[in-house]
Write a structure and sequence with these properties.
Elements lengths: L5 E8 L5 H14 L5 E8 L6 E8 L2 H9 L3 H5 L14 E5 L5
Antiparallel strand pairs: 1-3, 1-4, 2-3
């Protein structure tokens, strides 16, 4: 049941100023570029938390994201970023449906 665009936020920490995380982000992004339903992604650097980063991916809908997440390549494709997940958070990710837009 598709019902609109989706954004997935993954929180990361990189005490090395993000150089290795940024390299991992580019590798993962190249791998995910052809995934059906993925509209793009961004790497955001926190201006208030040293070493804090968020990867925001945009998806056509929940169905496209779920197909990819449950597919066989999901874990391997995202493995380079996994060591940087923010383990201080009880849940280092969020899944949000776009409710309004201007």
């Amino acid at each position: 049941m598709s019902s609109g665009q989706l954004q997935v936020l993954l929180h990361h920490l990189a005490p090395d100023q993000g150089t290795e995380l940024t390299d991992a982000y580019h590798r993962v992004s190249a791998e995910l570029a052809p995934v059906p339903g993925m509209l793009g992604n961004e790497l955001l650097r926190s201006l208030t938390q040293p070493g804090g980063f968020v990867v925001v991916s945009r998806w056509a809908d929940i169905d496209a994201f779920t197909r990819w997440e449950q597919g066989p390549g999901h874990r391997d494709a995202t493995a380079p970023l996994r060591p940087y997940r923010d383990a201080s958070m009880s849940r280092p990710f969020g899944i949000y449906q776009v409710d309004a837009r201007y």
